[in-house]
Amino acid sequence: MKKTLILIAILLGYHGYSQNKLDGYIETGLKNNEIIKQHNFDINKSMYALKEAHSLFYPSVSLNANYTKADGGRTIDIPIGDMLNPVYSTLNQLTNSNAFPALQNQSVLINPDNFYDARIHTAMPLLNFEIIYNKRIKKQQNYLQIIELEIYKRELVKEIKIAYYKYLQSKEGIKIYEEALKLVKENQRVNQSLFKNEKINRTAVLRSDNEVIRIEANLETAKQASNNAKSYFNFLINQKLDTEIETDYQNELLPTTMVSENTQNREELAQLGLVKELNGNVSKLTESYWFPKLSAFADFGFQDFDFEVNKDSRYYFAGVGLEWNIFSGNKNKFKLKQVAEDTQKINSQIDNVKQQLLLQFQVTQNNLKSALEQFNADKNQKESARKYNEDITKLYKEGQAIYIELLDAQNQWVNAQLNTNIALYNSWIAYAELERANATFTLNQ
Protein backbone atom coordinates (compact mmCIF):
# COMPACT_ATOMS: atom_id res chain seq x y z
CA MET A 1 0.00 0.00 0.00
CA LYS A 2 2.81 2.38 0.93
CA LYS A 3 4.64 1.75 -2.34
CA THR A 4 1.41 2.38 -4.26
CA LEU A 5 0.92 5.71 -2.50
CA ILE A 6 4.53 6.66 -3.19
CA LEU A 7 4.13 5.81 -6.88
CA ILE A 8 0.93 7.88 -7.10
CA ALA A 9 2.68 10.78 -5.43
CA ILE A 10 5.58 10.39 -7.80
CA LEU A 11 3.41 10.44 -10.90
CA LEU A 12 1.25 13.32 -9.70
CA GLY A 13 4.29 15.24 -8.57
CA TYR A 14 6.12 14.87 -11.84
CA HIS A 15 3.21 16.00 -13.99
CA GLY A 16 2.35 18.86 -11.64
CA TYR A 17 5.84 20.29 -11.45
CA SER A 18 6.21 23.48 -13.48
CA GLN A 19 9.64 23.83 -15.06
CA ASN A 20 8.98 26.63 -17.55
CA LYS A 21 11.54 28.88 -15.88
CA LEU A 22 14.09 26.12 -15.67
CA ASP A 23 13.57 25.17 -19.33
CA GLY A 24 14.13 28.81 -20.25
CA TYR A 25 17.33 28.91 -18.22
CA ILE A 26 18.54 25.69 -19.88
CA GLU A 27 17.91 27.21 -23.29
CA THR A 28 19.81 30.34 -22.22
CA GLY A 29 22.69 28.23 -20.90
CA LEU A 30 22.96 26.21 -24.11
CA LYS A 31 22.90 29.41 -26.14
CA ASN A 32 25.35 31.46 -24.10
CA ASN A 33 27.83 28.87 -22.83
CA GLU A 34 31.35 29.71 -24.00
CA ILE A 35 32.48 26.07 -24.15
CA ILE A 36 29.60 25.30 -26.53
CA LYS A 37 30.66 28.25 -28.68
CA GLN A 38 34.20 26.85 -28.77
CA HIS A 39 32.84 23.43 -29.76
CA ASN A 40 30.88 25.08 -32.57
CA PHE A 41 34.10 26.67 -33.81
CA ASP A 42 35.70 23.20 -33.86
CA ILE A 43 32.70 21.81 -35.75
CA ASN A 44 32.95 24.58 -38.33
CA LYS A 45 36.67 23.93 -38.64
CA SER A 46 36.11 20.21 -39.24
CA MET A 47 33.41 21.04 -41.80
CA TYR A 48 35.88 23.20 -43.71
CA ALA A 49 38.42 20.36 -43.48
CA LEU A 50 35.79 18.08 -45.07
CA LYS A 51 35.22 20.57 -47.87
CA GLU A 52 38.97 20.79 -48.33
CA ALA A 53 39.16 16.99 -48.68
CA HIS A 54 36.32 17.07 -51.22
CA SER A 55 38.10 19.74 -53.25
CA LEU A 56 40.95 17.31 -53.91
CA PHE A 57 38.72 15.51 -56.43
CA TYR A 58 38.63 18.58 -58.67
CA PRO A 59 41.33 19.69 -61.09
CA SER A 60 43.88 22.26 -60.03
CA VAL A 61 44.82 25.03 -62.44
CA SER A 62 47.84 27.28 -62.07
CA LEU A 63 49.71 29.87 -64.12
CA ASN A 64 53.43 29.19 -64.30
CA ALA A 65 55.97 31.44 -66.01
CA ASN A 66 59.73 31.79 -66.01
CA TYR A 67 62.36 33.79 -67.83
CA THR A 68 66.03 32.81 -68.05
CA LYS A 69 69.11 34.87 -68.78
CA ALA A 70 72.31 32.84 -69.08
CA ASP A 71 75.95 33.11 -70.11
CA GLY A 72 78.78 30.60 -69.82
CA GLY A 73 78.50 27.13 -68.42
CA ARG A 74 78.13 23.95 -70.36
CA THR A 75 77.56 24.04 -74.11
CA ILE A 76 76.59 21.72 -76.91
CA ASP A 77 79.09 21.85 -79.78
CA ILE A 78 77.54 21.45 -83.25
CA PRO A 79 80.21 20.97 -86.01
CA ILE A 80 77.96 22.35 -88.71
CA GLY A 81 80.88 23.98 -90.56
CA ASP A 82 82.92 20.80 -90.68
CA MET A 83 79.93 18.92 -92.04
CA LEU A 84 78.60 21.36 -94.63
CA ASN A 85 81.58 23.47 -95.80
CA PRO A 86 83.04 20.69 -98.06
CA VAL A 87 79.64 20.26 -99.62
CA TYR A 88 79.18 24.02 -100.06
CA SER A 89 82.65 24.33 -101.63
CA THR A 90 81.82 21.62 -104.18
CA LEU A 91 78.52 23.33 -105.01
CA ASN A 92 80.27 26.67 -105.52
CA GLN A 93 82.71 25.02 -107.96
CA LEU A 94 79.91 23.35 -109.87
CA THR A 95 77.90 26.55 -110.11
CA ASN A 96 80.96 28.74 -110.62
CA SER A 97 79.65 31.07 -107.92
CA ASN A 98 79.86 31.92 -104.23
CA ALA A 99 76.18 31.19 -103.51
CA PHE A 100 77.09 28.86 -100.65
CA PRO A 101 79.23 30.71 -98.07
CA ALA A 102 81.37 28.91 -95.56
CA LEU A 103 79.76 28.17 -92.18
CA GLN A 104 81.30 28.33 -88.69
CA ASN A 105 81.01 25.55 -86.18
CA GLN A 106 78.40 26.43 -83.50
CA SER A 107 78.58 26.19 -79.70
CA VAL A 108 75.12 26.46 -78.01
CA LEU A 109 74.65 27.13 -74.30
CA ILE A 110 72.76 24.39 -72.46
CA ASN A 111 71.11 27.05 -70.27
CA PRO A 112 68.82 29.04 -72.63
CA ASP A 113 69.65 32.73 -72.82
CA ASN A 114 66.91 35.38 -73.01
CA PHE A 115 64.24 32.66 -73.00
CA TYR A 116 60.70 32.77 -71.57
CA ASP A 117 58.12 30.08 -70.89
CA ALA A 118 54.55 30.97 -69.80
CA ARG A 119 51.94 28.26 -69.45
CA ILE A 120 48.70 27.28 -67.76
CA HIS A 121 49.19 23.99 -65.93
CA THR A 122 46.20 21.76 -65.16
CA ALA A 123 46.39 18.59 -63.09
CA MET A 124 43.63 16.24 -62.00
CA PRO A 125 43.59 12.93 -60.13
CA LEU A 126 41.87 10.15 -62.06
CA LEU A 127 42.29 7.33 -59.56
CA ASN A 128 43.55 7.93 -56.01
CA PHE A 129 42.15 5.89 -53.13
CA GLU A 130 44.00 8.02 -50.60
CA ILE A 131 41.78 10.97 -51.52
CA ILE A 132 38.64 8.83 -51.26
CA TYR A 133 39.41 7.51 -47.79
CA ASN A 134 40.74 10.86 -46.62
CA LYS A 135 37.36 12.42 -47.40
CA ARG A 136 35.55 9.68 -45.47
CA ILE A 137 37.83 10.20 -42.47
CA LYS A 138 37.26 13.97 -42.50
CA LYS A 139 33.50 13.40 -42.63
CA GLN A 140 33.62 11.08 -39.64
CA GLN A 141 35.83 13.50 -37.73
CA ASN A 142 33.17 16.15 -38.29
CA TYR A 143 30.52 13.80 -36.86
CA LEU A 144 32.76 13.13 -33.86
CA GLN A 145 32.91 16.86 -33.15
CA ILE A 146 29.10 17.02 -33.28
CA ILE A 147 28.71 14.05 -30.93
CA GLU A 148 31.26 15.51 -28.52
CA LEU A 149 29.19 18.70 -28.44
CA GLU A 150 26.03 16.70 -27.70
CA ILE A 151 27.77 14.98 -24.79
CA TYR A 152 28.85 18.31 -23.35
CA LYS A 153 25.35 19.74 -23.76
CA ARG A 154 23.82 16.86 -21.81
CA GLU A 155 26.35 17.31 -19.03
CA LEU A 156 25.68 21.04 -18.97
CA VAL A 157 21.91 20.50 -18.78
CA LYS A 158 22.43 18.21 -15.80
CA GLU A 159 24.67 20.73 -14.05
CA ILE A 160 22.20 23.57 -14.69
CA LYS A 161 19.33 21.52 -13.26
CA ILE A 162 21.30 20.49 -10.19
CA ALA A 163 22.44 24.09 -9.60
CA TYR A 164 18.84 25.28 -9.96
CA TYR A 165 17.54 22.73 -7.47
CA LYS A 166 20.31 23.57 -5.00
CA TYR A 167 19.38 27.23 -5.29
CA LEU A 168 15.73 26.41 -4.58
CA GLN A 169 16.89 24.25 -1.71
CA SER A 170 18.89 27.14 -0.25
CA LYS A 171 16.01 29.60 -0.64
CA GLU A 172 13.64 27.24 1.14
CA GLY A 173 16.25 26.76 3.86
CA ILE A 174 16.34 30.54 4.38
CA LYS A 175 12.55 30.59 4.81
CA ILE A 176 12.75 27.81 7.38
CA TYR A 177 15.41 29.64 9.37
CA GLU A 178 13.48 32.90 9.16
CA GLU A 179 10.42 31.19 10.62
CA ALA A 180 12.60 29.54 13.26
CA LEU A 181 14.07 32.93 14.15
CA LYS A 182 10.60 34.33 14.71
CA LEU A 183 9.86 31.34 16.93
CA VAL A 184 12.97 31.65 19.12
CA LYS A 185 12.55 35.40 19.41
CA GLU A 186 9.02 34.83 20.67
CA ASN A 187 10.45 32.33 23.15
CA GLN A 188 12.99 34.93 24.19
CA ARG A 189 10.23 37.49 24.79
CA VAL A 190 8.10 35.05 26.75
CA ASN A 191 11.03 33.86 28.89
CA GLN A 192 12.08 37.40 29.69
CA SER A 193 8.52 38.17 30.79
CA LEU A 194 8.32 35.03 32.90
CA PHE A 195 11.71 35.82 34.45
CA LYS A 196 10.54 39.31 35.40
CA ASN A 197 7.54 37.75 37.08
CA GLU A 198 9.88 35.30 38.83
CA LYS A 199 8.17 32.28 37.33
CA ILE A 200 11.39 30.84 35.78
CA ASN A 201 15.07 31.11 36.58
CA ARG A 202 17.70 33.00 34.61
CA THR A 203 18.98 29.82 32.91
CA ALA A 204 15.96 29.64 30.61
CA VAL A 205 16.48 33.27 29.57
CA LEU A 206 20.14 32.71 28.79
CA ARG A 207 19.31 29.57 26.83
CA SER A 208 16.68 31.40 24.77
CA ASP A 209 19.18 34.20 24.07
CA ASN A 210 21.69 31.62 22.85
CA GLU A 211 19.07 30.05 20.61
CA VAL A 212 18.39 33.41 18.97
CA ILE A 213 22.11 33.88 18.33
CA ARG A 214 22.44 30.33 16.97
CA ILE A 215 19.52 30.64 14.57
CA GLU A 216 20.70 34.06 13.39
CA ALA A 217 24.12 32.56 12.63
CA ASN A 218 22.50 29.63 10.79
CA LEU A 219 20.31 32.07 8.84
CA GLU A 220 23.33 34.10 7.78
CA THR A 221 25.14 30.91 6.72
CA ALA A 222 22.07 29.87 4.71
CA LYS A 223 21.97 33.26 2.97
CA GLN A 224 25.63 33.04 2.01
CA ALA A 225 25.12 29.51 0.74
CA SER A 226 22.18 30.77 -1.32
CA ASN A 227 24.30 33.57 -2.75
CA ASN A 228 26.96 31.05 -3.71
CA ALA A 229 24.34 28.81 -5.31
CA LYS A 230 22.97 31.78 -7.26
CA SER A 231 26.43 32.79 -8.44
CA TYR A 232 27.27 29.27 -9.60
CA PHE A 233 23.94 28.92 -11.43
CA ASN A 234 24.47 32.25 -13.22
CA PHE A 235 28.01 31.17 -14.08
CA LEU A 236 26.68 28.03 -15.78
CA ILE A 237 24.28 29.99 -17.98
CA ASN A 238 26.84 32.78 -18.57
CA GLN A 239 24.97 35.57 -16.83
CA LYS A 240 26.20 38.16 -14.36
CA LEU A 241 26.84 36.36 -11.11
CA ASP A 242 24.49 38.57 -9.10
CA THR A 243 21.55 38.24 -11.52
CA GLU A 244 18.34 37.35 -9.69
CA ILE A 245 16.96 33.90 -10.46
CA GLU A 246 13.26 33.59 -11.19
CA THR A 247 11.52 30.49 -9.84
CA ASP A 248 8.11 28.95 -10.48
CA TYR A 249 8.10 25.82 -8.38
CA GLN A 250 5.53 24.24 -6.11
CA ASN A 251 6.71 22.73 -2.86
CA GLU A 252 6.83 18.98 -2.21
CA LEU A 253 6.25 17.79 -5.78
CA LEU A 254 8.36 14.84 -6.78
CA PRO A 255 10.00 13.58 -9.98
CA THR A 256 9.19 10.28 -11.64
CA THR A 257 11.11 7.03 -11.61
CA MET A 258 9.05 5.59 -14.47
CA VAL A 259 11.79 5.59 -17.12
CA SER A 260 12.98 2.71 -19.26
CA GLU A 261 16.65 1.91 -19.66
CA ASN A 262 17.97 3.79 -22.70
CA THR A 263 21.74 3.58 -22.35
CA GLN A 264 22.19 1.98 -25.78
CA ASN A 265 21.34 5.36 -27.29
CA ARG A 266 23.95 7.26 -25.29
CA GLU A 267 26.17 9.52 -27.36
CA GLU A 268 29.25 7.98 -25.77
CA LEU A 269 28.49 4.64 -27.47
CA ALA A 270 27.76 6.37 -30.77
CA GLN A 271 31.07 8.16 -30.42
CA LEU A 272 32.99 4.92 -29.89
CA GLY A 273 31.12 3.27 -32.77
CA LEU A 274 32.10 6.13 -35.04
CA VAL A 275 35.70 5.93 -33.83
CA LYS A 276 35.66 2.25 -34.79
CA GLU A 277 34.38 3.10 -38.29
CA LEU A 278 36.95 5.84 -38.61
CA ASN A 279 39.68 3.42 -37.62
CA GLY A 280 38.42 1.08 -40.35
CA ASN A 281 38.84 3.84 -42.91
CA VAL A 282 42.32 4.54 -41.56
CA SER A 283 43.07 0.88 -42.23
CA LYS A 284 41.74 1.17 -45.78
CA LEU A 285 43.73 4.36 -46.25
CA THR A 286 46.87 2.49 -45.27
CA GLU A 287 45.96 -0.41 -47.58
CA SER A 288 45.52 2.02 -50.47
CA TYR A 289 49.31 2.11 -50.61
CA TRP A 290 49.07 -1.05 -52.70
CA PHE A 291 46.79 0.53 -55.30
CA PRO A 292 48.07 2.58 -58.25
CA LYS A 293 47.56 6.33 -58.50
CA LEU A 294 46.54 7.67 -61.86
CA SER A 295 46.52 11.35 -62.74
CA ALA A 296 46.35 13.54 -65.83
CA PHE A 297 48.00 16.84 -66.63
CA ALA A 298 48.02 19.39 -69.46
CA ASP A 299 50.09 22.53 -70.17
CA PHE A 300 49.01 25.25 -72.59
CA GLY A 301 51.33 28.19 -73.14
CA PHE A 302 54.00 30.13 -75.03
CA GLN A 303 57.78 29.85 -75.10
CA ASP A 304 60.38 31.60 -77.22
CA PHE A 305 63.50 33.76 -77.22
CA ASP A 306 63.57 37.57 -77.01
CA PHE A 307 59.91 37.66 -75.92
CA GLU A 308 58.76 36.74 -79.38
CA VAL A 309 55.06 35.77 -79.59
CA ASN A 310 53.85 34.11 -82.77
CA LYS A 311 52.16 30.97 -83.90
CA ASP A 312 55.36 28.99 -83.48
CA SER A 313 55.62 30.11 -79.85
CA ARG A 314 52.39 28.41 -78.87
CA TYR A 315 52.51 24.88 -77.55
CA TYR A 316 50.62 22.30 -75.50
CA PHE A 317 51.94 19.42 -73.48
CA ALA A 318 49.66 16.78 -71.94
CA GLY A 319 49.93 13.35 -70.51
CA VAL A 320 48.89 10.77 -67.94
CA GLY A 321 50.94 9.80 -64.90
CA LEU A 322 50.96 6.47 -63.09
CA GLU A 323 52.45 5.89 -59.65
CA TRP A 324 52.49 2.41 -58.14
CA ASN A 325 54.52 1.74 -55.04
CA ILE A 326 56.25 -1.63 -55.16
CA PHE A 327 58.16 -1.88 -51.92
CA SER A 328 58.61 0.29 -48.81
CA GLY A 329 60.39 -1.97 -46.38
CA ASN A 330 57.11 -3.35 -44.88
CA LYS A 331 56.32 0.11 -43.49
CA ASN A 332 52.62 -0.10 -44.36
CA LYS A 333 52.40 -3.69 -43.18
CA PHE A 334 53.38 -2.58 -39.69
CA LYS A 335 51.03 0.40 -39.90
CA LEU A 336 48.18 -2.00 -40.59
CA LYS A 337 49.12 -4.05 -37.55
CA GLN A 338 48.98 -0.90 -35.42
CA VAL A 339 45.52 -0.09 -36.78
CA ALA A 340 44.38 -3.66 -36.05
CA GLU A 341 45.50 -3.29 -32.43
CA ASP A 342 43.60 -0.02 -32.19
CA THR A 343 40.49 -1.81 -33.45
CA GLN A 344 40.78 -4.45 -30.74
CA LYS A 345 41.25 -1.72 -28.15
CA ILE A 346 38.13 0.12 -29.36
CA ASN A 347 36.06 -3.10 -29.23
CA SER A 348 37.17 -3.60 -25.65
CA GLN A 349 36.32 0.01 -24.81
CA ILE A 350 32.84 -0.36 -26.29
CA ASP A 351 32.10 -3.42 -24.15
CA ASN A 352 33.45 -1.71 -21.06
CA VAL A 353 31.55 1.55 -21.66
CA LYS A 354 28.30 -0.38 -22.20
CA GLN A 355 28.68 -1.93 -18.77
CA GLN A 356 29.66 1.41 -17.22
CA LEU A 357 26.65 3.19 -18.68
CA LEU A 358 24.30 0.43 -17.57
CA LEU A 359 25.81 0.54 -14.09
CA GLN A 360 25.44 4.32 -14.02
CA PHE A 361 21.77 4.02 -14.96
CA GLN A 362 21.06 1.41 -12.30
CA VAL A 363 22.92 3.35 -9.60
CA THR A 364 21.19 6.65 -10.40
CA GLN A 365 17.80 4.95 -10.55
CA ASN A 366 18.41 3.33 -7.18
CA ASN A 367 19.60 6.66 -5.81
CA LEU A 368 16.37 8.29 -6.95
CA LYS A 369 14.26 5.57 -5.35
CA SER A 370 16.25 5.94 -2.15
CA ALA A 371 15.86 9.73 -2.25
CA LEU A 372 12.10 9.39 -2.69
CA GLU A 373 11.86 6.98 0.22
CA GLN A 374 13.93 9.36 2.33
CA PHE A 375 11.69 12.27 1.42
CA ASN A 376 8.54 10.43 2.40
CA ALA A 377 10.12 9.37 5.69
CA ASP A 378 11.27 12.93 6.42
CA LYS A 379 7.87 14.28 5.43
CA ASN A 380 6.15 11.99 7.94
CA GLN A 381 8.68 12.99 10.60
CA LYS A 382 8.03 16.65 9.80
CA GLU A 383 4.30 16.21 10.35
CA SER A 384 4.92 14.42 13.65
CA ALA A 385 7.41 17.10 14.73
CA ARG A 386 4.92 19.83 13.88
CA LYS A 387 2.20 18.27 16.01
CA TYR A 388 4.64 17.56 18.84
CA ASN A 389 5.89 21.17 18.76
CA GLU A 390 2.33 22.53 18.86
CA ASP A 391 1.46 20.33 21.83
CA ILE A 392 4.59 21.18 23.84
CA THR A 393 4.19 24.90 23.05
CA LYS A 394 0.64 24.81 24.44
CA LEU A 395 1.76 22.93 27.55
CA TYR A 396 4.67 25.34 28.10
CA LYS A 397 2.39 28.34 27.93
CA GLU A 398 0.15 26.64 30.49
CA GLY A 399 3.15 25.99 32.72
CA GLN A 400 2.93 22.22 32.36
CA ALA A 401 6.23 21.76 30.46
CA ILE A 402 9.73 22.98 31.13
CA TYR A 403 11.72 25.11 28.66
CA ILE A 404 14.12 22.31 27.75
CA GLU A 405 11.16 20.29 26.48
CA LEU A 406 9.92 23.22 24.44
CA LEU A 407 13.41 23.78 23.02
CA ASP A 408 13.73 20.13 22.08
CA ALA A 409 10.34 20.16 20.36
CA GLN A 410 11.19 23.31 18.40
CA ASN A 411 14.59 21.96 17.33
CA GLN A 412 12.93 18.77 16.15
CA TRP A 413 10.43 20.83 14.16
CA VAL A 414 13.12 23.00 12.52
CA ASN A 415 15.38 20.01 11.77
CA ALA A 416 12.45 18.06 10.33
CA GLN A 417 11.65 20.93 7.95
CA LEU A 418 15.29 21.24 6.91
CA ASN A 419 15.63 17.49 6.37
CA THR A 420 12.42 17.39 4.31
CA ASN A 421 13.60 20.32 2.20
CA ILE A 422 16.97 18.64 1.64
CA ALA A 423 15.33 15.33 0.77
CA LEU A 424 12.89 16.99 -1.65
CA TYR A 425 15.54 18.65 -3.76
CA ASN A 426 17.89 15.70 -3.42
CA SER A 427 15.13 13.77 -5.18
CA TRP A 428 15.12 16.28 -8.02
CA ILE A 429 18.91 16.21 -8.16
CA ALA A 430 18.83 12.41 -8.29
CA TYR A 431 16.29 12.63 -11.12
CA ALA A 432 18.55 15.00 -13.07
CA GLU A 433 21.40 12.51 -12.69
CA LEU A 434 19.14 9.65 -13.80
CA GLU A 435 18.00 11.70 -16.78
CA ARG A 436 21.64 12.28 -17.71
CA ALA A 437 22.53 8.61 -17.27
CA ASN A 438 19.63 7.61 -19.50
CA ALA A 439 20.06 10.44 -22.08
CA THR A 440 16.32 11.17 -22.01
CA PHE A 441 16.47 14.97 -22.07
CA THR A 442 15.56 16.25 -25.53
CA LEU A 443 18.23 18.56 -26.88
CA ASN A 444 17.14 21.15 -29.41
CA GLN A 445 19.31 20.87 -32.48
TrEMBL record:
One of its GO terms (molecular function) is efflux transmembrane transporter activity. It holds the Pfam family OEP. InterPro entries: OMP_efflux, TolC-like. It is found in: Cell outer membrane. The keyword Secreted does not apply. Keywords: Cell outer membrane, Coiled coil, Membrane, Transmembrane, Transmembrane beta strand, Transport. The keyword RNA-binding does not apply. Residues 336-385 form a coiled coil. One of its GO terms (cellular component) is cell outer membrane. Gene3D superfamilies: Outer membrane efflux proteins (OEP) (1.20.1600.10). Belongs to the outer membrane factor (OMF) (TC 1.B.17) family. This is Transporter.
